[in-house]
């Protein structure tokens, strides 16, 4: 999500890009900070790119603690020169890291940043299991089997327009809201990442009744981008079967985690206990998504 190819799917002018690149004393690129300016009242703040779930400071394995401690004050000084009100960085969850990199968190805290938003996602560690059933609770297995016995089947699909119709109806009826992305934006993303975005759909009597749009953000994690079902067919438990098949696919493809996304709302202030329970029924456990902030 930090690639320019991803960021550029947003319409021109939607965000005021102010992404940064950091170089060492030998003019070698050592860090990238995808960012934009965001209005807060009459002031502007420097924040992780608003159109991406994950932001943070992107580094390679050669980036060490001394560089982290040197970079943080440079970022602070840069934002002060721009007369910005605050810095807000949404870090990448640790399950996506190719190597440990808590020197970033430490450097931010050392220089006065503190967590301002804490959200909780649910993820399943695939390297700890050999079958989808390994950590699934009995109720989740029973509902998965119910879907199979009722004739529900799961397969990859490219019928995005039908999926989008179910998603829009589902969000409107259950949450009185709309998808974060427009349908045209999703199609644009699929064209940009044809091998990383996949739609797993459940069908009953040849009719799509549920779906999960997944985004393989890197070689470690399958991210569940959008999850929905047709309310009329909820009793058939199609999502149970999709989740189980998705775990099996992730195992076969060598991924490390399935990330089912956050089940908190309003920047972590509201907990959707039912949604947590559903995801945890497949063996998932909590992954923090933290945002650090410093008022200048």
From TrEMBL:
It is an enzyme of class 2 (transferase). Its EC number is 2.3.1.-. GO terms for molecular function: acyltransferase activity. Gene3D superfamilies: 3.40.630.30. Keywords: Acyltransferase, Transferase. PANTHER family: LIPID II:GLYCINE GLYCYLTRANSFERASE. This is GNAT family N-acetyltransferase. It comes from Bacillus lumedeiriae. The lineage of its organism: Bacteria, Bacillati, Bacillota, Bacilli, Bacillales.
